[in-house]
Amino acid sequence: MYSFFRKKQKHKQNNTREKWKITRRCLDMILESAKSTYPNEFGGLLRVDEKQRDTIVEIVLLPGTVSGDAHAIFRLHMLPIDFSIVGTVHSHPGPYPIPSDADLQLFSKHGRVHIIVASPFTINSWKGYNYNGQEIEIEVI
After folding, report:
1. Among this protein's residues, is 50 annotated catalytic?
2. pLDDT class of 79 with cuts at 50, 70, 90
């Protein structure tokens, strides 16, 4: 089961090769949200389709999320109990969608798939990562 609420466990090498997809509609929403909060960071959670559990279809905005020019703080105590939430998305105001140390810590504790979008917030300025911070391919459908 893919879940944001998972026990900390060691993963076998094969588990790092999960295949993920995202709808173009959802990716466009992420990019537009990042543009609208620029120069501050945007942050949200990734939700998969109930039937196609490998396909990201929505973003969930947590109440109380704080955005600044160098951070987005998630209020994880506001996280709904929702097993279709599989990871996080946030923006970087600069041109590089590369995870920081704080990003890597978040990735390792919460979720299986993560997206970082960077300026100029276009279809070519984002990357996906797994819980280890390794870059992964996310197919846009």
Report:
1. no
2. confident
pLDDT confidence of residue 65: 65
Q: How far is CA 44 from CA 30, 114, 136, in A?
A: 9, 10, 19
Pick the CATH number of 16-140 from 3.40.50.10950, 3.40.140.10, 3.90.1150.10, 3.40.50.300: 3.40.140.10
Cα radius of gyration (the chain): 14
Please provide the distance, in angstroms rounded to a whole number, between the alpha carbons at the two ends of the chain. 22
pLDDT at 64: 59
Catalytic: which of 41, 50, 135, 139?
41
